[in-house]
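Aim 2 progress update. The chain analyzed this quarter is reproduced below.
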Amino acid sequence: MLIKRSCIRYVFLINLFLIVLLFCSGISLNSEEFNFPKYAVAVLNTPVLNTDDFESVFGGTEGRKVKTDNKGLIREMEFIAFPNTVFEILDEIQKGDHSIYRIKTGDYPYYSADLFIDSRFVKTMDTLPEERIKTIPSKSEIIEAMNSLEGYQYMWGGNCGNGIEQLIEFYKPSDEISDNTRNLWMLKGVDCSGLIYQATKGATPRNTSSLITYGEGVDIEGKNTTRIAEILQPLDLIVWSGHVIIVLDQNTVIESTPDRGVHKSDLKGRLKSILKERTPVNDWGSSDKKRFVVRRWF
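Predicted structure tokens:
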């Protein structure tokens, strides 16, 4: 009996200690505070950022600037989720008339830190919705889509060439802004992998870290410019970790770079410039640090 009473007292003290610990840690025992939706589905093109402070990116302290680094890039941008993209909501931050959700999504498995979306771009639900259907368009449709983006500016994390008008509405500038600032504010333009991501309507991987192993490798190891050019086919990816160039036809490639935006160039000429700096390999697992691969995925 004495042992039983001691056990009861011991359990009581442990429970009391846990309650005090939760109280001292500022963690509420009221479950209502954790009653945010479990899932969200994009109803608009939805910017996904690596910060919850959207106001600092779209407006800043004066309400009329876009936050960029010394290269003019919005480093807080990760990608733009297309409509019907599914998010799991991990946390909710109230922002007056809307919320910022901390999320994760199968459409973007790259970032190890936190990702955030604005609640006004999505609808929420408590049951897991069906994942976005990813259907690769025809070859001609993909090429036509990339051709239509020629001349668009480079946008870090961008894969929605015409931008997102709702960003101007939701984060309204405090004063008149220049056309360049407006384009930045709307995330107008695409980055290198965003070019092919938009052209395939989000059916291909979003980042080059996945594109380097996407599809099948093409045998380019030990070959020169002419020989590689002869075996390339439309939509082949000339890719390394950090950049991708897409073959349009036997003479032309297309890419998006910070200095020139989306532009075309001569296939052989572009290959020649790459071969001056990088080694062609068949498998990205090669030990050569300055390497590139060609992936055939279509």
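The CA atoms of residues 99 and 222 lie 54 Å apart. Confidence is low (pLDDT under 50) at residues 1-8, 18-32. These observations will guide the mutagenesis experiments scheduled for the next reporting period.
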